[in-house]
């Protein structure tokens, strides 16, 4: 089935598939550079690169001297904050962002803070190699300052504004018996979404989003190092769940979700990947013993059709939980319903592509343990699956042979902790 072919592979993604990033492009594979170095710490003067973190070693981890784990943490972005931006440069030269920076960092250490640098560095291998040489050279200039650095080298869970580097940091501190005091800690970064009177704006708002996701006080470098007034005019771009309007869970039409009296029928779902179709099935149809038909699980459309046929033979109703994006795909099931003389209802999940992509990132990277322990582990579905759904989508129509089309709206379900995670900024690239 064309519509679900992209999502169908998603439940069985291999590690290779999972390296696809948003935009459907092949993500940077982990360069052998990382795997070679992973074994031994690399010592450069007082600085050493430790074993990279994460299942795919995509989070570089280094320390200058022996940084103490303290409950108050002063966190800094690197490029455009501690040093002048030289992003992607292939040489290891650098300059302080402003001359005040080293003394300010030293003072924080003396005042009882842990100093930690948090950086996005999804660079090509040559630039990354230069960058890895640059950090020890910065450390040499800060030789008496113990600090820790974490750097996300891929477009994954570690990349700001995703909170992976924070999760690792809290874990490292916990191993030292230290709970980070969020209210006494702060983050300084230049990617603040600032809008300027001349019409220009910051290249992104990623640092401010990261602080907001975690609940940390945020400062720009100008505010923190130079004492300039707070720059209040900022705009964070991209999808945030606060933009969703509240809607009823489904359109009131002539039938309830479950038919009364219950008869064998086909319920066919239509909607972007990760828009909550399976969750909806589990919540409403599973308890009513509807058979779950899913091409990701069964492997092919003929197998789905066979399974539907068998369910109907046994007097059961079933749900086709695929993306079913176009009329040609849906026709296979409409024809089967006609042949078996049972009704077929279409449930169209109307949430946007932005919401679906957001849920995809949430599901792959940011579900709280209470949800993750109840759902199968799912890799990130490539962005291409969303754009191809959108490109080929045909609005379902009664004339296709449905007895009813019900619109299913997104309604958040979950407790405060689930909402906290789901409401974070989820983004792998762009603004
Ligand atoms: N109503 C909801 N409230 C909160 N979270 C939800 C809700 N529905 C789904 N989710 C979460 O969104 C993510 C995607 O949901 P789900 O896996 O059900 O989507 P799907 O449409 O079946 O995806 P696919 O087509 O890729 O199989 C999951 O992590 C799920 O926990």
Automatic annotation (TrEMBL):
Keywords: Kinase, Transferase. Residues 1-27 are annotated as: Disordered. InterPro entries: HAD-like_sf, HAD-SF_hydro_IIIA, HAD_sf, P-loop_NTPase, PNK3P, Polynucleotide_phosphatase. The keyword Signal does not apply. It holds the Pfam family PNK3P. One of its GO terms (molecular function) is kinase activity. NCBIfam families: DNA-3'-Pase, HAD-SF-IIIA. This is DNA kinase/phosphatase Pnk1.
């Amino acid at each position: 089935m064309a519509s679900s072919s992209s999502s169908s592979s998603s439940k069985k993604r291999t590690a290779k598939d999972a390296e696809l990033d948003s935009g459907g492009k092949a993500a940077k594979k982990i360069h052998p550079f990382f795997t070679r170095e992973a074994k031994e710490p690399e010592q450069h003067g007082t600085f050493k690169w430790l074993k990279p973190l994460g299942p795919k070693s995509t989070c570089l981890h280094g320390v200058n001297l022996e940084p103490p784990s303290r409950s108050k943490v002063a966190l800094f972005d690197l490029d455009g904050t501690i040093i002048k931006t030289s992003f992607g440069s292939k040489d290891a030269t650098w300059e302080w962002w402003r001359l005040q920076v080293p003394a300010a960092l030293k003072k924080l250490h003396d005042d009882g803070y842990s100093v930690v640098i948090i950086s996005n560095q999804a660079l090509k291998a040559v630039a990354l190699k230069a960058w890895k040489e640059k950090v020890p050279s910065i450390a040499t200039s800060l030789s008496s300052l113990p600090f820790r650095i974490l750097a996300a080298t891929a477009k994954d869970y570690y990349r700001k504004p995703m909170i992976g580097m924070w999760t690792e940091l809290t874990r490292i501190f916990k191993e030292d018996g230290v709970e980070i005091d969020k209210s006494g800690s702060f983050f300084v970064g230049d990617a603040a979404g600032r809008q300027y009177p001349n019409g220009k704006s910051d290249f992104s708002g990623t640092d401010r989003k990261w602080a907001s996701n975690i609940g940390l006080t945020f400062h720009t470098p100008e505010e923190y190092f130079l004492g300039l007034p707070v720059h209040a005019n900022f705009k964070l771009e991209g999808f945030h769940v606060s933009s969703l309007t509240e809607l009823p869970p489904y359109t009131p039409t002539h039938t309830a979700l479950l038919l009364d009296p219950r008869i064998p029928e086909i319920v066919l779902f239509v909607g972007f990947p990760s828009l909550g179709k399976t969750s909806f099935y589990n919540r409403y149809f599973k308890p009513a013993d509807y058979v779950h038909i899913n091409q990701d699980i069964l492997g092919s459309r003929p197998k789905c059709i066979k399974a539907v046929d068998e369910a109907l033979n046994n007097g059961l109703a079933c749900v086709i939980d695929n993306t079913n994006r176009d009329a040609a795909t849906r026709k296979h099931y409409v024809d089967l319903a006609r042949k078996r003389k049972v009704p077929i209802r279409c449930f169209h999940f109307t949430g946007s592509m932005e919401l679906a992509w957001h849920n995809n990132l949430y599901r792959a990277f940011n579900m709280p343990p209470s949800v993750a322990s109840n759902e199968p582990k799912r890799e990130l579905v490539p962005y291409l699956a969303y754009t191809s759904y959108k490109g080929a989508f045909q609005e379902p129509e009664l004339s296709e042979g449905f007895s009813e089309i019900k619109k299913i709206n997104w309604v958040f379900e979950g407790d405060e902790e689930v909402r906290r995670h789901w409401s974070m900024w989820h983004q792998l690239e762009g603004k």
